[in-house]
Amino acid sequence: MTKNNLSLFRKIFVFLFIAFSLTIAGCRQPGDSTASQEVIEPQDRYGEVAERLEKIIRHEMAAKELPAFSISLIDDQEIVWARGFGMTDPDAQLPATAETVYRIGSVSKLFTDIGIMQLVEKGELDLDAPVTDYLPDFRPENPFDKPITLRQLTSHRSGLVREPPLGNYFDDTEPSLSATIASLNRTKLIYEPETHTKYSNAGIAVVGYVLEKTQGQPFAEYLKQAVLVPTDMESSSFEPEESIIDKLAKAYMWTIDGRVFRAPTFELGMAPCGCMYSTVIDLGKFLSTLFNGGNGPEGRMLQPETLEQMWTPQYAKPGAKQGYGIGFAISELNGHRKIGHGGAIYGFATQLSGLTDVKLGVSAVSTLDATNSVVTRIADHALKLMLAAKENASLPDLMLSTPLATDLVEKLQGRWASGENKFDLIGREGRLYITGQGFAEVKSLGDTLILDGRLAYGTQIEVEDDHLIMNGKTYAIIAPSEPESVPDKWQGLTGEYGWDHNILFITVKEGKLHALIEWFFPYPLEEISEDVYAFPDYGLYHGERLIFHRDDRGLATEVEAASVVFKRRTAD
Predict the structure, then answer these.
(1) Are 431 and 518 part of one and the same domain?
(2) Is residue 351 a contact partner of residue 372, using CB atoms and an 8 Å limit?
(3) What is the pLDDT of residue 447?
(4) Fewer beta carbons within 10 Å, N or C terminal of the chain?
(5) Strands 526-529 and 532-534
(6) 365 and 511: one domain?
(7) Which residues, given as ranges, of the chain have pLDDT below 70?
(8) Could you tell me the pTM of the whole model?
(9) What's the burial of 411, exposed, middle or buried (CB within 10 Å: 0-12/13-18/19+)?
(10) Cα 556 from chain centroid?
(11) What are phi and psi of 142, to 5 degrees?
(12) Which among 353, 371, 399 is the end of a domain?
């Protein structure tokens, strides 16, 4: 399926999605109950909320071609609605349900951090002690007069690299957690601890390894007994147990040039940061445990005061209402504190969110890579609907965009510029996409245009005669650029590096060397020296570098990008 184009995938998906919708409509009736809880019908005041959300979910699944989607809504100690949509296995025509198992990516970090805080409560660990007190052999190069601590690691303030050299997001060799952590000794801190927020998968892998070493038990086994059992998360695990994998949804990757292929399923060497399996029902139980002050169905998980500490932004000004707490991402929604985390791992996109003061929560997952913008938008609107229902207020509407008319697609195609700012509008199968400032579909929303794609939502475009206005800048159409010649100094650097499942593209654009990493993230590179370049000061890899290694012909055979080695895929 690696070479299937987007059109074929769309036809297959639409056929199966409609077939499943008709089937499920005929066999499910309001009030039906099943011992397996494949569907939890809307409870009490949430009937209209579920009806509104179902319409939105079906619209977004069709528009973004999501193969499967599951959601649960939580009001304090009750899951008030949960169900699945689409197909978890299009080949076998298996429908998604509330019990479908998904990989939840970085939502895993919350459970690892809770495992640490349980030991902090018992006085066995100190958040502010040097982590070398627990891992004496953990020695990344640290040129600063400040040791790394668990508090820094859990709040992404340690200054560590984003990915470890081994066991990283790209590495399909499945090394052990101990080998993954040992590889960090080959790295150097990017920032002085506590000075910058730098999201680090490596950091939470270290946190998990502290649990493994101090408790004398493999991380996955320990975490299951310490955190998942008290929460009654019986369909969740940090390792691919047979009973869980049997219910795992198939997930899909896609690329901006239209390819679609099955997502890889290898285990990361940094399991504590992203390898958990779960269901929206189990994630609902977890939210209920949080809302119950840490007391779960099968025992206490944490004390209420510990949760409050985790829900307080770290290294922030007093009274700060957003940032990273200990594990949890903290923000606001409609004046209420929102806690939770997103997750992204090959083919899966997850959002877990809760409003702690009113005890309302949502978990949602899709099976198409990098669709977190879509999942989060649905989850946030679910919380707004639940808030209104609980307050007996009118339910808010969510405006849904529609594809552009064919004549407008044809009219707007081309390269647009405002000074040094440029983007391309490209027509594809009757739709219009923007590239050069992210990648998204351009759609209609009322009287304006809006960027509404799998990767992003919200930027509006106004059409005025022969000009476009976006982000306060006026753009005019210009002649297409001539293909850029590659300067001699970059002749040996451009090309493709990495794996079939994750390719790093090095290209020349607008007179600069560029990297496209993790399929969707383009970065202009700053030249440090002949073969050393820096990522920009934003995005996934800020503060990190790319180091090219050439052969005696001057051709780069590999590039070490942000501590990960990508081998050249083809040689001239």
Answers:
(1) no
(2) yes
(3) 87
(4) C
(5) antiparallel
(6) no
(7) 1-36, 571-572
(8) 0.92
(9) middle
(10) 31
(11) -125, 95
(12) 399
